[in-house]
Structure formats: structure tokens, C-alpha cells
Amino acid sequence: MSEKIVINEVGLRDGLQMQPVFVPTARKLELARALREAGIHSFEVSSFVSPKAVPQMADAADVFAGLPALAGVDYWALVANEKGYERAIEAGAGKVGLVLSVTETMNRRNINKSVDESAAEYTRILDRCARDRVQNRVYLAVAFACPYEGKTPAETVVEWTDRMLTAGAGEIALADTIGAGAPAQCEDLLALLLRHWPAERFALHLHDTRAMALTLAWIGAQHGVRKFDSSIGGLGGCPFAPGAAGNVATEDLAFMFEASGFDTGVDMAGLRRAVGVAEAITGLTLGGRVTRFLQSREPDTH
Ligand code: COA
Ligand code: ZN
Q1: Burial environment of residue 185 by CB neighbours within 10 A (0 to 12, 13 to 18, 19 or more)
Q2: What is the pLDDT of residues 64-102, one digit of tens each?
Q3: In the chain, which ranges are continuous DSSP H helix?
Q4: CA distance 250 to 238
Q5: Would you say the CB of residue 88 lies under 6 angstroms from ligand 1?
Q6: Residue 302 included in any domain
Q7: Which of 84, 133, 169, 241 is the Cys-Cys partner for 164 at CB 3.0 to 4.6 Å?
Q8: Which helix (H) or strand (E) holds 138?
Q9: Is the CB of residue 112 below 6 angstroms from any atom belonging to ligand 1?
Q10: Rounded to the nearest whole angstrom, what is the distance from the C-alpha of residue 82 to the centroid of ligand 2?
Q11: Best of 49, 62, 102, 112 to mutate for ligand 1, by most ligand atoms within 8 A of CB?
Q12: How confident is the model at residue 240, as a pLDDT?
């Protein structure tokens, strides 16, 4: 049997969070359904953050309420403070991701706290996760580069990985938040981390701003990483930050791994349909780099 890759679809959260026009809850659920039908079985559904900071995620509880409980399908909630954790649990989320930016400026801009203050709050949340039997992951945002502080030293990532795993993190998702990582950097970072911890403790969350995301994902896979975040059609990116791009497209990531003999569980035709739903609900033209090739194999589309 071929080795499994878990594709965690983050389009509903990372992909949509900066979309200026509010996508109604029913349409978010429609996208989730299309993705499930395509075989996606891990989702970052929404974030329980301040609706003033991110109005698009204001309906997080409603989105969770609208999702069917299905065996083998994981729904994750992103939280950034204890209030968010409490809202997530109340909404029935059984898995939470905590986002910690490893540079002071980014953490301050994102969640208005120093990295140490957030780490202290997350340590309390991780204790609660253990008591509440809630699975968790900790995102280390700007693990490759920070838009304000430049390239992130690998030692900084090692330090925060250590602190968060010691505090009870289930896994560490290394996030290239602005898509500025280079292959050699990814190679060095993973080699360093894997001297201390096994690859099962890590996931990669990659953005494709500089067209490096697939390469970094492949380097991750070569190092034994099996969990990757992506967003359908490459949805995401901030319309107010020219050049910022979305997450690596789910269809590109799935195609790469399937072509290499891994089992992602997803079906490419289903993903193509999900891209159509994502386009319909956002009004954007979407699609990864494999789109044209896939279209050329769909006789009914031309
Ligand atoms: N959910 C909903 N509301 C929240 C909240 C949460 N998790 N945390 C705080 N709030 C509310 C407070 O109740 C308060 O409301 P009020 O103004 O009506 O009294 C207000 O937000 C300010 O609370 P405070 O604790 O002072 O937070 P802050 O202003 O320092 O903001 C965050 C901190 C974390 C809430 C905010 O920066 C945020 O939501 N950031 C998320 C950013 C994000 O999602 N980034 C993308 C994902 S990486
Ligand atoms: Zn992201």
C-alpha cells in the first residue's frame, strides 16, 4: 500500500479570511461539501478570533454547527487566545490550531501580544486541551521569513518548537506565512529540527507567493513530513498587500503527491469541481498550476 499524505484544506479559513466580501455561511458549507466529495478529510474550518479583526470569520460557530459529523473527517478551528478556545469548544470543535508568530513584530501585528505573552496563554490553552481531550497543533507563523523582520533564523524555530512541544503541543505546523522560504532554507531547517524530533511531529503550511511552495512541500516529504496545508484553487492572499499570494493550491499539491505514488485520498475531478464552487462563492478566478492540464482532459469543458 502506498504511503498516506494528509492534505489539510485551509481554504475556508486562510483562503477566505481576507476576502473583502462576506461569504454567507451556507456558501462556505457548500464549499466544504464539494471538498469532502473530492475526498478531502481534514479541514481548517474557521477561526475564533475577533470579528472586528477578521469579519469574514464572524460566523465560525455557525459554520461548525452546519458541518456533518463524519467518521474519518477532521475539522480544525484556529484560535489565538483563551476566549477563542472557549468559543471553539462551545461550538463543538474537537481540534484546535494555535497560531504563534515567532517574531515580535508579526505576533504583535497579528494578535497584539508579545511572543512570550502568547506563549504563556497558549501554555494554559494546551493544559486545557489535555483536560478537555481536544487535539491540538501549534502553528509557528513566519517560520521562514517575517514581512517586518526578514529571514527567520532556524534557531528561533527550534527554540519555539521546543517550548511549544514541552508545553504540550501535539504537533508543530511550520508556516511560511508570506511564501518567502527557499528550498535550501527548508532543507536546512528540517534537517535541524529532525535532529531533535521525529517528522511525525511536523506539518508544513506553505504559501506560493514566490512559486516555491511545491518544492518546499517535496523537500518536506523527503524528510518524512506527511501533513500539508493547502487551499483549493490557491485561494487566499491579501488584496491590500500586492504580491502576497494564497496557500499552495490543493490540486497542485495533491497532483504532485499522487504522481509520486503517495495516497492523498483525493480525486482530481472532484477538486476541479470544488475549484468551481470556490470561484462561484468568491467571484474570483482560481486554479493551481495544474489547472490547464486537468482542463485539457475534461472533454465536457470545451
Ligand atoms: N473572539 C471574539 N472576540 C474576541 C476574541 C475572540 N477570540 N478575543 C478578543 N475578543 C474581543 C474582546 O471581547 C473585545 O471586544 P470589545 O471591544 O467588544 O470589548 C475585543 O475583542 C478586544 O479584546 P482584547 O482582548 O483587548 O484583544 P485585542 O484587541 O488585543 O485583539 C485578538 C487580540 C487576538 C482578539 C485580535 O488581534 C485578533 O482577533 N486577531 C486575529 C488575527 C487573525 O485571525 N489573523 C489571521 C490568522 S493567523
Ligand atoms: Zn497561511
Answers
A1: buried
A2: 999 999 999 999 999 999 999 999 999 999 999 999 999
A3: 25-37, 60-66, 82-90, 104-111, 115-132, 154-166, 183-196, 213-222, 250-259, 268-282, 291-296
A4: 18
A5: no
A6: no
A7: 169
A8: strand 135-141
A9: yes
A10: 21
A11: 49
A12: 45
Listed residue (235, 277, 297) closest to 26, CA to CA:
277
**Segment 160-192, tens digit of pLDDT:** 999 999 999 999 999 999 999 999 999 999 999
Does any domain span residue 196?
Answer: yes
Question: In this structure, which residues have their CB less than 5 angstroms from ion ligand 2?
Answer: 14
Q: Which ligand is nearest to the CA of 15?
A: 2
When divided into structural domains, the chain yields a total of 1
Q: How far is the CA of 98 from the centre of ligand 1 (A)?
A: 14
- Whole-angstrom Cα distance, residue 254 to residue 250? 6
Indicate whether 301 belongs to any domain: no
Grid cell digits, residue 281: 462563492
| Residue with CA closest to ligand 1 atom 29 | 112
Q: Are the C-beta atoms of 216 and 252 separated by less than 8 Å? A: no
- What's the CATH number where 220 sits? 3.20.20.70
The catalytic residues are 238
- Measured by CA distance, the residue closest to atom 40 of ligand 1 is 111
Closest-approaching ligand to the CA atom of 174: 2
- Rounded-to-integer distance, Cα 253 and Cα 233, Å: 11
pLDDT tens, position by position, 118-157 = 999 999 999 999 999 999 999 999 999 999 999 999 999 9
Q: Which domain holds residue 52?
A: 6-296
Q: Are 75 and 67 in contact (CB under 8 A)?
A: yes
- In contact, 139 and 110? CB cutoff 8 Å: no
